[in-house]
Specification:
The chain is α/β, with parallel strands linked by helices. It contains ten helices and 20 strands. The mean pLDDT is 94.
Length: 366
């Protein structure tokens, strides 16, 4: 798709779930216009367009994300615009990255105070002394308190641009030692499908210390037969896939988030399923067509705080692709969301098979 950035129109190869350029980017670019750097670190949800903008200024770009859709969008976008693909780290942690090597950092803040502090500490680790941090976040996602977090780490920070509900700020990296941030890990006992369970999760993964109510509804509504081949599409911490394993299925799990993949692997291992494949991929793109009997999924429908169905629609298409003839999809959604038209576009028989007033489990038969 074609978008206009401050330095001209560009084409972006954007995968589902990757934010489009908009007011957030406009605020960030306005704040960064006085920052001149030959090497720029870029990170955060929506960073593909920002990395492209930074490269078009002539800077050498270094990119980090734990979201493989963002990483693949970056690679495809740069190739399409005939630009050298930046050095990119698409991974759960910061292994292999060299600290204090960038003169500027352009950061799209994730949601949540813990993740925002991690983003600031990552930027501080990557910057040389005197290097500039430029950050942007939504006013309704705590950017004002984020400015205070930045000031606590960098000494001072100020908001310098406002666009369409987004604030962008500046800070300068002081002297001193700024190591890479530690990634918070939790392990706690919960109950899943009536069985005691160890849940392992890392910072930034959805429902890090609990069984999400939507996942619980999906577990209650799905019918899994022993020996069937099941895909847990968008697995998160892996609890729905674990429930299918305990019912005797052969399960493969996928997620776009590298930290979700690590969380799911460790959760499965902690519960006696160490060898189950968990694949880091966008949707089911790394999996073969027509190879599963059942797909189970709890698709996201938010991008930030906005309702956004792009990923859910992609999950439905991908489920239909990887299912065998006669295969079954079980999809959970909030009860107020009507997924029936999208499901009927890909499945011959669609019905709601479970609901509790808050959630509805849809069954699609291929």
């Amino acid at each position: 798709m074609r978008y206009t950035l401050p330095n001209g129109a560009v084409d972006m190869a954007r995968l589902p779930g990757v934010p489009e350029p908009g007011a957030e980017h406009a605020a960030l670019f306005t704040a960064a216009q006085s920052v001149h750097a030959t090497r720029i670190f870029v990170a955060g949800p929506g960073a593909t367009a920002t990395a492209l903008w930074a490269a078009q200024t002539g800077a050498d770009v270094l990119f980090w994300t734990e979201n493989i859709a963002e990483g693949q969008s970056l690679t495809a976008t740069f190739a399409h615009n005939r630009l050298p693909v930046p050095q990119s780290f698409v991974q759960a942690d910061f292994a292999g990255m060299s600290p204090a090597t960038c003169a500027a950092a352009l950061i799209h803040l994730p949601r949540g105070r813990e993740m925002q502090e991690e983003a600031f500490r990552l930027a501080a680790a990557m910057l040389i002394p005197g290097g500039w941090l430029v950050f942007v976040g939504a006013t309704r996602e705590g950017v004002k308190s984020a400015r205070q977090q930045a000031a606590a780490i960098f000494g001072q920070a100020g908001i310098v641009a406002r666009k369409g509900g987004y604030h962008a700020g500046l800070a300068r990296r002081p002297t001193g030692d700024f190591p890479f941030p530690e990634i918070h890990r939790t392990e706690c006992p919960i109950v899943v499908d009536g069985m005691p369970t160890r849940l392992v999760s890392y910072a930034g993964v959805f429902a890090a210390e609990r069984l999400d109510d939507g996942a619980a509804a999906l577990i209650a509504g799905m019918q899994i037969s022993p020996g069937t081949r099941v895909l847990d599409l968008g697995c998160g911490t892996g609890l729905v896939g674990l429930a299918a394993l305990r019912r005797g299925a052969q399960v493969v799990l996928t997620d776009v988030s590298a930290r979700a993949v690590v969380s799911a692997r460790e959760t499965l291992a902690a519960n006696g399923y160490a060898d189950v494949p968990v694949v880091h991929t966008c949707g089911a793109s790394a999996l073969e067509t027509g190879t599963f009997d059942t797909v189970i999924t709890n698709p996201p429908f938010h991008q930030g705080r906005d309702i956004h169905f792009e990923t859910a629609q992609m999950f439905i298409r991908e489920a239909a692709r990887v299912l065998k003839a006669g295969g079954t999809l079980y999809l959970v959604a909030n009860a107020f969301l009507n997924y029936a038209p999208w499901l009927k576009a890909h499945f011959s028989n669609v019905q709601a098979v479970w609901e509790n007033g808050r959630f509805r489990v849809w069954k699609g038969q291929k």
